[in-house]
């Protein structure tokens, strides 16, 4: 085709393409199916008139690849004919000291081989000019088709005739998307007369930069969904989450020993330490959630573990110096820093696991990562008791009557002081192992494609983790190109006020954020209320007798060690020390107290929590997760009411194990339902642009709830002197569970859909992250009702319709128009 044969539309398209500096004459020629001399002549005309700048090599590193470097590369390639473009890039970096981009190498090698060299493989390849032109004509034909047309265009048929065969056509599509250099013209450039998007029209993809990016998203989702489970991703995320859970819930282990050594009668120390640790978690979740969306997941993934490691060392080495420093100030400071690292782990681990997982394995992978929370709790208890038993074997800790007698008081404090330092310092070991792998993890292709708009890097990084897709990939599933050099001028800027307003306010996606935040808030009020610092709570639940008075009737009132002095008589005036949590057995030593606490925690909390988390992994794709979240909140409401009633009936009596059983069932239900789901759902329903930020906000709301729980429990224990006050806490927390059920029912969307197999069997299918990320408007189009007011109106409408169906007289007197519900027309 010559210049004279160009239509007015093609001339307008050519004028626009010539103004794009990243396209050379050859690229434009094969897309428009014109002679390259025509493009060159038109370019000279525009340059002479000053409409465009003089054309130069578009690669930022092209000037570094000199002719003698190219000759050296060609000679090396002849000796290594199977080398890939990435291998050539590595050769130039190591042998020539050049940082040359892959597109530059691809273009220069095509020139060196005369454009007649074809290679296939995983990475971007050098392709023949004839193949490239044939594919270009196919792309141009597809882009010029009207949307929704199923019939192939003439350009597609012509391109198919040029290809060697059907198998070669599939390979051409596969090779085309692999090429880092391939262009991606948008529909509005190639077809300037296409209908613009109408105001108020729901976009196909939030933050999409055009049809090409939509195709790239489809291809990337297709590649991710070819896989089921990735042990590498799970191991990296789970190891960090295990570390954070270990350090957070080690509070139940170390506070008793720290109180024994430094604060035997200060009951507010544990309250301050827990409160500052949780406050640090809130800051970490908000800060790292935002930074992960702004700068990338992997840039921060590992930094939070560095914080945990440094703070762990800081906590383990805390001292009062030569009586010139405050031990409590340093201890709480390092716990605050540790809380920042612990909080950062929540959005990062959840979002990275969600984005790397396939659609079918997403829920199971995230729940498997979250299973590390109860395992970390149990591990902290086990490590603590093992260290204590080791110290007892080495120093005879039990025989020294530590805590009851002053004879070996200083030696006991020295041994116990080393015990808690070993326990807390051990938490850095899994972090050191995890951090090695985290710094070499790639950003998920979804983030690279949708936020960074770098499809070549997205596909490359995905294949580094999962490998290349099968060679017999269906061409219909593969997009026509893998790159996108065009930017949508109307594409909103991430975190701009306009974009935040449009997404959260105008499109009503604040419903989702409100739902995830409030459900997590109400859950953690109850979960942390008797799960964080529950040493005294568990001892009270396990007690089968009333409290014992401190008097001379106790066998430990007088010293049984020769030359020693009993410390028990001073407790009659000063009260029991804070480390002595079992008021029914005040003569227990610190050794016996910690052993009893560990046994009670493992039997009541850890076993039930681990069992619940494991059961959820099995049922994750078999139950309707959003409905189960609401149901589990309702079940927990009933369980808390029952537990409170049982406690009032059997507390401090032989039937006390009944309360212990009820509490264990509560912990099972926590991890079988609400506790796990509040972690999973925020990692699913938000778009990639704001997924980590919204998950961080939701998790921070949960930690605020845990701070509220700490305040409530401390206030009740301090101001309410009744020995039955634990029953009041159970009944009070039941109301928070009921509120969690309301918010999960009203403000959260369905993350699954019901589908029917060929044999008519019904099953649940996970929605993709791309579907869920389109937010409230997409859910509304699918018929979902979200919002408390909308739910109430919908419920009233359904009840009214049912009454009219059951009462035909009313229906005959008040005729109504047919309405559609669940795909059926009803009156």
Automatic annotation (TrEMBL):
Gene3D superfamilies: MFS general substrate transporter like domains
Residue span(s) of domain Major facilitator superfamily (MFS) profile: 233-752
Cell membrane keyword on record: no
Polar residues bias locations: 143-156
Chain residue ranges for the region called Disordered: 127-164
GO molecular function terms noted in the UniProt entry: transmembrane transporter activity
Membrane topology: Multi-pass membrane protein
Record key words, sorted: Membrane, Transmembrane, Transmembrane helix
Pfam families for this protein: Sugar_tr
Transmembrane segments: 268-288, 300-319, 325-348, 369-389, 422-442, 510-530, 601-621, 628-650, 656-681, 693-716, 728-748
InterPro entries assigned to the protein according to its UniProt record, in alphabetical order: Homeodomain-like_sf, MFS_dom, MFS_sugar_transport-like, MFS_trans_sf, Sugar_transporter_CS
One cellular component term from this protein's GO annotations in UniProt: membrane
Subcellular location as annotated: Membrane
UniProt-listed PANTHER family: SOLUTE CARRIER FAMILY 22 MEMBER
Protein name according to UniProt: MFS general substrate transporter
């Amino acid at each position: 085709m010559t210049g004279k044969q160009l239509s007015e539309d093609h001339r307008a398209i050519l004028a626009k393409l010539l103004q794009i500096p990243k396209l050379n004459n050859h690229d434009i020629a094969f897309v428009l199916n014109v002679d390259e001399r025509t493009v060159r002549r038109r370019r000279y005309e525009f340059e002479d008139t000053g409409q465009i700048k003089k054309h130069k090599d578009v690669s930022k590193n092209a000037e570094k690849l000199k002719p003698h470097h190219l000759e050296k590369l060609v000679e090396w390639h002849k000796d290594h004919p199977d080398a890939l473009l990435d291998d050539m890039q590595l050769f130039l970096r190591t042998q020539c000291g050049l940082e040359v981009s892959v597109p530059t190498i691809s273009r220069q090698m095509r020139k060196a081989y005369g454009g007649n060299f074809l290679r296939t493989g995983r990475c971007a390849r050098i392709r023949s000019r004839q193949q490239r032109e044939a594919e270009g004509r196919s792309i141009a034909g597809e882009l010029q088709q009207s949307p929704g047309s199923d019939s192939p265009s003439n350009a597609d048929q012509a391109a198919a005739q040029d290809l060697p065969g059907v198998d070669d056509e599939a390979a051409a599509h596969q090779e085309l998307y692999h090429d880092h250099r391939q262009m991606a013209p948008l529909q509005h450039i190639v077809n300037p007369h296409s209908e613009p998007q109408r105001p108020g029209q729901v976009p196909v993809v939030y933050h999409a930069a055009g049809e090409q990016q939509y195709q790239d998203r489809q291809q990337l989702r297709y590649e991710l969904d070819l896989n089921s489970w990735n042990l590498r991703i799970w191991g990296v995320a789970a190891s960090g989450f295990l570390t954070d859970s270990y350090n957070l819930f080690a509070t139940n282990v170390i506070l008793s020993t720290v109180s024994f050594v430094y604060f035997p009668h200060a009951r507010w120390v544990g309250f301050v330490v827990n409160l500052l640790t949780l406050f640090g978690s809130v800051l970490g979740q908000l800060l790292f959630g935002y930074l992960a969306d702004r700068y990338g997941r992997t840039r921060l993934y590992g930094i939070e573990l560095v914080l945990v490691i440094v703070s762990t060392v800081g906590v383990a080495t805390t001292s009062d110096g030569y009586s010139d420093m405050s031990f409590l100030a340093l201890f709480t400071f390092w716990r605050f820093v540790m809380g920042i690292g612990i909080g950062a782990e929540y959005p990062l681990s959840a979002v990275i696991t969600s984005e790397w997982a396939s659609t079918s394995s997403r829920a199971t992978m995230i729940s498997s990562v979250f299973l590390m929370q109860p395992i970390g709790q149990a591990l902290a208890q086990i490590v603590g008791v093992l260290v204590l038993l080791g110290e007892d074997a080495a120093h005879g800790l039990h025989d020294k009557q530590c805590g009851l007698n002053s004879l070996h008081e200083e030696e006991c404090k020295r041994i116990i002081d080393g015990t808690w330092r070993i326990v807390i310092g051990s938490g850095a070991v899994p972090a050191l192992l995890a951090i090695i792998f985290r710094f070499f993890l790639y950003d998920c292709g979804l983030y690279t494609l949708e936020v960074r708009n770098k499809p070549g890097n997205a596909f490359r990084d995905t294949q580094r983790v999962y490998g290349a897709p099968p060679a017999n990939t269906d061409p219909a599933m593969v997009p026509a190109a893998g790159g996108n050099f065009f930017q949508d001028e109307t594409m909103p800027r991430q975190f701009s006020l306009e974009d935040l307003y449009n997404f959260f306010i105008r499109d009503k996606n604040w419903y989702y954020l409100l739902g995830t935040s409030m459900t997590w808030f109400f859950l953690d009020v109850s979960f942390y209320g008797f799960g964080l610092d529950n040493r005294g709570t568990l001892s009270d639940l396990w007690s089968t007798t009333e409290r014992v008075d401190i008097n001379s009737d106790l066998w430990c009132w007088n010293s049984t060690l020769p030359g020693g002095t009993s410390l028990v008589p001073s407790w009659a005036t000063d009260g029991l020390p804070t480390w002595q949590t079992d008021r029914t057995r005040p003569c227990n030593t610190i050794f016996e107290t910690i052993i009893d606490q560990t046994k009670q925690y493992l039997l009541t909390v850890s076993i039930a929590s681990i069992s619940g988390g494991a059961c959820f992994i099995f049922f994750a794709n078999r139950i309707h997760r959003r409905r189960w979240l609401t149901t589990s909140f309702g079940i927990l409401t009933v369980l808390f009411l029952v537990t409170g009633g049982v406690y009032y009936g059997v507390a401090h009596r032989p039937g006390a194990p009944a309360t212990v059983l009820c509490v264990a069932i509560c912990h099972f239900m926590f991890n079988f339902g609400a506790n796990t789901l509040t972690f999973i759902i925020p990692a699913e329903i938000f778009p990639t642009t704001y997924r980590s930020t919204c998950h961080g906000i939701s998790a921070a709301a949960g930690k605020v709830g845990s701070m509220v729980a700490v305040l409530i429990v401390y206030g009740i224990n301090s101001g309410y002197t009744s020995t039955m006050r634990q029953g009041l806490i159970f009944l009070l927390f039941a109301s928070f569970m009921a509120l969690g059920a309301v918010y999960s029912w009203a403000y959260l969307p369905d993350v699954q859909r019901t589908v029917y197999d060929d044999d008519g069997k019904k099953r649940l299918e996970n929605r993709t992250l791309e579907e869920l990320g389109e937010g409230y408007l997409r859910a509304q189009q699918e018929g979902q009702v979200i919002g408390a007011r909308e739910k109430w109106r919908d419920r009233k409408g359904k009840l009214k319709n049912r009454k009219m169906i059951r009462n035909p007289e009313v229906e005959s007197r008040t005729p109504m128009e047919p309405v559609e519900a669940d795909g059926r027309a009803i009156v």
